[in-house]
Structures are given as C-alpha cells and as structure tokens.
Design a protein that fits this description.
The complex is a heterodimer of chains A (172) and B (186).
Chain A (H helix, E strand, L loop, with lengths): L2 H10 L7 H13 L4 H47 L9 H41 L7 H11 L6 H14 L1
Chain B lengths: L1 H16 L3 H23 L2 H18 L3 H4 L3 H19 L11 H8 L6 H15 L3 H12 L4 H8 L3 H23 L1
Helix pairs in contact in B: 1-2, 2-3, 2-5, 3-5, 5-9, 6-7, 7-10, 8-10, 9-10
Classes of the chains: A mainly alpha (172), B mainly alpha (186).
Chain lengths: 172, 186
Amino acid sequence: MTKERILTILYRMRQISPNKDFSQKSKFAILQTPHDFSSKQTAYVQNNQMVLGLFIQKSFRAVFLAGATIAILFAIYFATAQLSPLFLPGLNQNGIIAEADMINTSIDIQLSNIQKFDATTKQSITVLQEITANTPDHLSEEVIKSEQEKIGLPASTQTDDQINSILKAIGK
Amino acid sequence: MLEREIENEKNVLERAIRGESSAFGLLYDKYQPKIFRFIFLKVSNREEAEDLTHQVFLSAWQNIGRFKDEGLPLSSWLYAIARNRVIDFYRTKKRTESIDENTDDVLTLATATLEDDVIHKIDLESVYKALKSLPSEYQEIVIMRFVEGLNPSEISKATGKNQGAIRVIQFRALQKLKKMLNNNHD
C-alpha cells in the first residue's frame, strides 16, 4: 500500500461522526450544568472579598472591644488606686486593710481610754466612800490627845497663850 | 475569509468564557465531532467514546475560564483534555490498547456515509488495525495530523511535545504503517 493510499484512508476516517441524538442530548446536558470557572472565579473572588471584608470588620471590632476592655479595666484600676476610700473601697484591698487598721487602732485607743476612765472612776468612788464612811484617824481628837500624852506635851503652853492674845489684839 | 472565521471564533470564545452557554454551544457543535472521532479511534467503542466525549466537553465548559491562562488554541486545549481522558480510561479500566479490540464500530461509522466498495472497507480495516498496533503516542499524532488535519504547532501544544519531535514521530509512524500494511499485503 502506498503512502498516498494510507493517507487517503486516514483522511476518509474523518467521515466518522457521533450520533446526532447523542450529540444533542450531551450538549443540552452540559449547558444545563452550572457554568463555570469565570462565574466560579467571580464568585470565588467575591466570596474572598466578602470573607476578607468580614475578617477586617471582625478584626477591627475585636481590636476595638479589646481596647475598650483594657480602657475600662485601666479606669477601674485607676479609680480604685486613687479614689478607693471615697468611691470604690470594695475594689481596693489595700485600702480596705488600711482603713480597717485605722478603725481598729481608733477602737483600741477608745477602749484603753475607757478602761483608764473606768479604773479612775472606781478609785475615786473608793476614796469618796472611805472619806464619807470613816473619819480619818489623824483628825480624831482622841488620837491627838493620846499622842500628846505619849509625847508628854502640856495641854496648853505659855507660848500658845501669848500667841493667841497677840492674834486677838491684831484682830481687834 | 479564514481571518474572519478566526476572528468570529475568537469572539464566540470570549463570550463562552464569560459564561454564555449559547456561545459554548457553537464551539461544541464545531469541535465535538473532531473530539469524538479522536477518542473513538483510540478506544474503538462507540458508547465509551460518547461517554468520554461528553466528559471532555463538560470539563471544558466547567473550566473554560482557565483557557486563556494556558495560552493554547481551543482545539489543542480540547485535544489535551481528550487525551488525558483516554489515558485515564485505560488506566482506570486496567485495559490496554490492543489491535484485538472490536473494529466493527469503527468500520460501521467510517463507511456509513460512503458509497463504499468492498476494497475500501478492507483497506480501512487494515489501516485501522495497523494504526492500533502503533505505540499510543504515535497513534495520537497520526490521528491529529492525518485524520483531523491539525498542524504540528497545534499538535505540539496538545501533546506537550516540541514540533521537531512531532515531525519525527509523524515520519516514523507513517513508515511503520507502510511497512506493516505492505507486509500484510505480501
């Protein structure tokens, strides 16, 4: 067989063609399927853009919330650190302890004073009771007389009389 | 005339890439018989050829947006898809291309529209069997070059081989065919 004959036979194979019914059905089925890369690509890009947008939006929101939270915490800390005795004592433990210590010290002082006062009062009462209930021994006439007798002093001396008379004269 | 046709096809292709199904339908009408023929001559079974052809155009429709990036003529792109489908077909079905495959379908289709005589049918069968006995890549190039009339540049882009290699394979394939057919006739 010659080369030309071979080429002719090969060329005539071009007569082979698909069944028309198959071709129509296949074409219809293919074109019914959702197209395609370009629209998929568009959708993909749009989706990516949307995802990116949401991501940025969420990121900004997260950063904003984190910043706001930090600011609030800082403000609370500042308030408790600087103003706790006045405004938010419950949030400053050191402030609470210091304040409690101050109160305790004050209470201790007051108790001490009360105890002292109480003791003094008791002593005063005792003394007054003693004064009112018993005449002091050194003022008793009998005691004085007995002591005079022990010592041997005269009941009245000349000197005393002289002094008395001078005093009377002066008194006149 | 040819330039106008090319320009027209370019326009249709652009519309198809944008997702216009009617434009892709026009491309389908033009290229589907060629792709079917290429596949049919490779697998020698009409139903399987139809199935694979359908898959090729479905894939083309779903991926036509990528077409520009690959920088191929549309025909080369479609033949490349078809070629890969045929390779997958033989790989997944654990089949090998064999000259023992039934040639009835091929002969029936190849002679259906001709006022064929017996001699033609015999020659056709002989050439087809000789073709099927060639290595796979030789078959592809013979079909693309001498049945479909693609130029070496288009074949090069479809197969990924350079044009020099295409010409060498084309020459060797014809020599082998000639030798086999002459031996059979002797």
